[in-house]
Amino acid sequence: MNHKIRFVDPGKNYRMIRAEIDAAYKEVMEKGDLIMRGQLKRFEERLAAFVGTKFAIGLNSGYDALHISLIIAGVKAGDEVIVPAHTFLATASAVVNVGGKPVLVDVAGDYNIDVNRIEEKVTPRTKAIIPVHLNGRPADMERIMAIAEKYKLVVVEDACQSLGAKFQGKRVGSFGLTGCWSFYPFKILGGYGDGGAITTDDAAVARAASLLRYNGEDRDTGEYHYHGFTCLLDNLQAAFLDVKLAHLPEWIERRRAIAARYNAGLSCVPQVILPHFVDPRVEEVFQNYVIRTPFRDALFDYLAAAGVETLIHWRKPYYMHKELAMDGQRFPETEAISRGVISLPMNVEIADDEVDYVIQSIRSFFEGDER
Ligand SMILES: *Cc1c(COP(=O)(O)O)cnc(C)c1O
């Protein structure tokens, strides 16, 4: 369908910063800087400064950031890693692909891991925990770090949806052994293709990640230290991401303004739960604006017919996909969420009158006779 209002509009975003992106492209092409050059280094330095860590290592994807973090954390066959039941599959796949067992914990009403249910899942085999900061909202890092300390667990933060968000004044991605980032085009800092990174304060972790991403080789000595991978952040993408990172603070403000506009425009609709969860410790960035309603499927169709593109994260929880052969446990809150959630257009390209059109369309739907 050709939507009037798109979920994100990368072409429109490009036109907003065209001169800077074109200049970055020209610099890379003219210099022939293709693999692991100055543009990547510069972006890594700025990303680390932004997150508030000593190091950032650019990778090919958010998945790679999780996978490499778990390798460095020493997660091996038979180890258990705690992950939320409501997240993107990649969080759990990284655990499986190092031979570990993902141990799922249900989420709370704010879509993040329910910190009151973590300790009952800790066993002598538990090695790590991966809190996910979903939709741009930080998980409760105060409780999670305390639990990790008590049971000596490694914390790997899946911060793929929360670049810029803060918990108790500190940026997410700077609490754990690593913070894992994705620059997939739909993410808050999106490239023109895949991309990712790890942030860390630990020099040994940073070195291991920079060797693992490039075939395990120390390029200065020619010595191989690992059976590694080829998963560097592409130099051209790094140049583009560096341009966009400079805009991120103003773009986060814009996202917050859009969220406030949705909140104000939809608070009169009783059939809808808005993403408005009061916690003074938390500063959100609204990667997604997710509402919940028992009329979700009809609303999705109605908005599509009105030309509004929405997404559903996710219709079926990952652990219920048969071919993945997970252990058959069920998670009531995750399943209720999967039946009720719908993500509204949220991006810095959208204009206020377009946001108002989305609001008006939702109101008309609920004012109709069918409800
Ligand atoms: C996007 C995302 C990932 C994976 O990122 P890719 O770059 O697509 O590999 C992992 N976890 C969460 C929560 C994400 O949203």
Secondary structure layout:
Layout: H1 10-16, H2 18-31, H3 38-51, E1 55-59, H4 62-72, E2 80-84, H5 89-97, E3 101-105, E4 126-129, H6 141-151, E5 154-158, E6 166-167, E7 170-171, E8 178-182, E9 196-200, H7 203-212, E10 217-218, E11 223-224, H8 235-266, E12 282-283, E13 289-292, H9 296-305, H10 332-340, E14 341-344, H11 352-367
Parallel strand pairs: 2-3, 2-4, 4-5, 5-8
Antiparallel strand pairs: 1-9, 6-7, 6-12, 8-9, 10-11, 13-14
Helix pairs in contact: 2-8, 3-8, 4-5, 8-11
The structure holds pyridoxal-5'-phosphate.
The site of pyridoxal-5'-phosphate (PLP) has 15 residues, from helix 4 and helix 5.
How many beta-strand elements?
14
Helical amount among residues, as a percent range?
A: 25-40%
Q: What does the radius of gyration come to? A: 21 Å
Shape: globular
Which blocks of ≥5 consecutive residues have pLDDT under 50?
A: none
Helix tally equals 11
Strand order of the main beta sheet, please? 1-9-8-5-4-2-3
Strand content: 5-15%
Q: How many angstroms separate the termini?
A: 25 Å
What do the pLDDT scores average to?
Answer: 97
Structural class: alpha/beta
User: In sequence order, what are the helices and strands, one letter per element?
Assistant: HHHEHEHEEHEEEEEHEEHEEHHEH
Largest sheet: 7 strands, mixed
What compounds are bound to the protein? pyridoxal-5'-phosphate
